[in-house]
Amino acid sequence: MNPTFSLQTRLAFSPHRLLCKPFSFSSSKTLTVVACSNSLHHGPSLRHGHGSVPEPVPNLTEQSSIDRDIFTRVFDLAALRVPAAECSELERRLRGHLLNWPRIRNVARVSGDDVDPSISKLLSRNPESYSSDEEPQLSPVLHREKLIKQFNHRGFINFRNLAKISRPKKKKKRYNERNDDSTEKIETSSVYKVELVSEEDNAEDWSTLIGEEFKGGSWRGPTRLLLLDERYAKTETHMLPGAVKALLYCENERGINSLYELVHCRLTIFYSYWQMTELLEALLPEDVIVPSGFETIGHIAHLNLREEHLPYKKLIAQVVLDKNKPKIQTVVNKTDAIENDYRTMQLEVLAGNHSLVTTVIENGIRFQLDLATVYWNSRLATERQRLIASFTNSDVVCDVFAGVGPIAISAARKARHVYANDLNPNAVEYIERNIVLNKLDRKIEVFNMDGRRFVNAIFSSPQIFPITQVVMNLPNDAAEFLDIFKGIFRNRSNDDDSCILPKIHVYGFSKAQNPEFDFHERINMALCETVREVEMNRVRLVAPGKWMLCASFNLPRAVAFGKPLIKVV
Ligand SMILES: C[S@@+](CC[C@H](N)C(=O)[O-])C[C@H]1O[C@@H](n2cnc3c(N)ncnc32)[C@H](O)[C@@H]1O
């Protein structure tokens, strides 16, 4: 006998098992079939399945709300309904033929399938396990009768399905109201849901009486759906892969005891499923490049939108917020280049809450800051680590432009002592808070003055530990501040060995062909001296062709003991 033919003939009598019939959905929503699920593509896509294709939004600056429903896609699938106990084994056997879409489990759970073991026993697949007077295959009514007979004084403990009879029906969830009656909800989440598409539209609904799992009359204890690859969605039975056919064939040989069913199901994927880029690609016009990323500062996502994105800035921000919740609570965009003294950014809140006070954890240290009033750049975290790694526990560090303290506080964990300064009173307020927050108040002293006055004061004060490292992180201007070191030890004798010449780490930008050479030249000019050994590090490209650099060198003796160039008041 030809097994394929036999299988087909047998399945033809069971509507549940025949997949050659096209799927018919009577959903209230009008669905546009965008592409037949036979077309070859990998994984779900917004361009496939049922549902209207999201249209790029018109050029509306103020449009900020997203109609999330337009991202709901429905896919027709075939599935094998199998006993739960055999599911893992069958999943292994059918590997390669299952759906295998990202973030979607191949195994869909049937709601209410975890029944009392006592009931499962009654429905055991092994005919020998039934006593002679028991029917192995029970109709829903017989099941109910049997359960009622065994119902005892302990009430509903053993028979949870009977308990449902006396309980008020639970309020149906929204998705159930939307669905037509021919579907049975089996798995749902805010990301996707799987429904079994019943072809028995007029089947009597026993679910209220004997439990959801009896609906359809074919229940035999806990079951699961193994979702088959999308290419089998509308495949006729004889076109199914050998592994699936073999399963069905062997099972079918058992006649009415067969436990495997080939069923139609519907996979609905919601807005939450799609990734940020997929959503933005669908929302933005084709000629607009999808913004690729953002900087995260605590709960804030900091976008750097281009001109072409501005008409869609609120939509982009909403997608960024939706896709990165709960970590991200606020989405901002920089409205202007940083040009003020305090290096703070002009930010526009595009989505989420409007608080720009946040907490950042960097290398295990907590920093509180208000992005509206102080400077912060998370992209410098690696550079800060590199710099601090060069410090030792005997170092005394002087951070001239400390901001809220990312270098000063990290250094304090390692070094002997730190002097931190900033011109911005808000930054000083936050650095003080952060010092306390990280329990480093014994090791850092904070100053609020101009960098020139600070360096002058700190090097001329006898109360201060001798400085061994000076950090100058104000890339726009720091090199021009270097002249302050000219004659810093002018009041000491040139042969005073107790004078420690500090190592200076100065940051700067360069757009030159040879940025290292260019920056070195600027340092020499500021110090009026040729500094011989300068260690240069490229920190990062801040714009095309513009490097941020860090130059580290020992302050030349000739500079420190030379004549001061300017008088600091
Ligand atoms: C680029 S930020 C660096 C802050 C910190 N080092 C960091 O990595 O986050 C430069 C800092 O220098 C401060 N600043 C600007 N001009 C200054 C000056 N003349 N004297 C002292 N601090 C100044 C700004 O307020 C700002 O906090």
UniProtKB/TrEMBL annotation:
Gene Ontology process terms (BP): mitochondrial tRNA methylation; tRNA N1-guanine methylation
UniProt keyword Methyltransferase, yes or no: yes
MF (Gene Ontology): tRNA (guanine(37)-N1)-methyltransferase activity
Pfam family, one: TRM5-TYW2_MTfase
Primary location recorded for the protein, binned into one broad class: mitochondrion
Keyword Nucleus: yes
Membrane-traversing stretches: none
Key words, A-Z: Cytoplasm, Methyltransferase, Mitochondrion, Nucleus, S-adenosyl-L-methionine, Transferase, tRNA processing
UniProt: S-adenosyl-L-methionine binding residues: R384, D422, L423, D450, G451, N473
Catalyzed reactions: guanosine(37) in tRNA + S-adenosyl-L-methionine = N(1)-methylguanosine(37) in tRNA + S-adenosyl-L-homocysteine + H(+)
Gene3D superfamilies membership: Met-10+ protein-like domains (3.30.300.110), Vaccinia Virus protein VP39 (3.40.50.150)
Gene Ontology terms: cellular component: mitochondrial matrix; nucleus
Localization in the cell: Mitochondrion matrix; Nucleus; Cytoplasm
EC number annotated for this UniProt entry: 2.1.1.228
Enzyme type, top EC level: transferase
Span of domain SAM-dependent methyltransferase TRM5/TYW2-type: 294-557
Classification via CDD domains: AdoMet_MTases (cd02440)
Domain of life: Eukaryota
Task of the protein: Specifically methylates the N1 position of guanosine-37 in various cytoplasmic and mitochondrial tRNAs. Methylation is not dependent on the nature of the nucleoside 5' of the target nucleoside. This is the first step in the biosynthesis of wybutosine (yW), a modified base adjacent to the anticodon of tRNAs and required for accurate decoding.
Family statement drawn from the similarity comment of this UniProt entry: Belongs to the TRM5 / TYW2 family. Belongs to the class I-like SAM-binding methyltransferase superfamily. TRM5/TYW2 family.
Subunit and partners: Monomer.
Protein name: tRNA (guanine(37)-N1)-methyltransferase
Source organism per UniProt: Rhynchospora breviuscula
